[in-house]
Amino acid sequence: MHDLSKFKRMMVCLDLTEMDEGLIKYASLIANTFELNAVYFYHVTTSFELPEDIQEKYPDLIAPVDEMLEKEVEFSVKKYFKSPEGCDIKIHVEAGGITDEILKESKVKVIDLLLVGRKEKLTGSGLNSRKVAKATPASVIFVPENPPLELNQVLVSIDYSDHSRMAFEIGIDIQKKSGAKLLSNNVYRVPVGYHKSGKSYDEFAEIMLENTKRDCDRFFRKMDLNGVDYDHTYALDDDPHPADKIYKTGREMGVDMIILGSKGRTSAAAFLIGSVAEKLVMEDNDIPLLLVKKGKENLGFLDALFKL
Length: 308
Description:
The protein is α/β, with parallel strands linked by helices and 308 residues long. Helices cover 39% and strands 20% of the residues.
């Protein structure tokens, strides 16, 4: 059984732009709901060296750049973050490549959960969300520019696989901790070449719906759902990609978070998050996405990536 106890340590990736306010407030929501033990606020800058024109303009500026940046992060954290009782708060600033430093530091700190921003209109960051989603063994929450600061409804997208079960169990515990309404949805599609069966599109869609309902019954029978209140629905995939349908369904339901289980194997050559998850990560959307991973089983990939 997967629950929120698997999440102990969260890293929040800040870029010192106006998006940090919403990201820190959302981090507070997650830290309190998940009852985290430690939260690391992390900023990566390209260099600690002050440009020459700045040095000439402000000759009395003697504080090291890293200290100034840490104070700036600390100011925002104190202003917007409400810490759970007993939660250890750390602030760290590093120089280097943003994505690679985040991946390395998340391993060093044994991070269970990464919180990263997903920008649509705002500029800045330079974070490669796709690479982070693929490479980190941690689960990841991709947070939009103006995230909801309550968890009233969460949607788990399931395909009846083991990683879907993991995601649904996390959804159950979020419901227990936050009181959020738990929704689940399966996106099914009509196969290419359906016309060769002699059936119309609508007729074959009905056949596929009946088939996915049987799969659904088998999926939920394998779990202990005693006392769990959830609402499962189905969505016919009539969009260009299943990920589009998942987001459209979430938007229609007015959910505050979409949860998706990530595929993963320890081999560096075979590591996958799944095509649907990857498309969801790259979409510009206003719904936070929690990509749930099993964590330590994927450390072999990061070891190979950085040759640690």
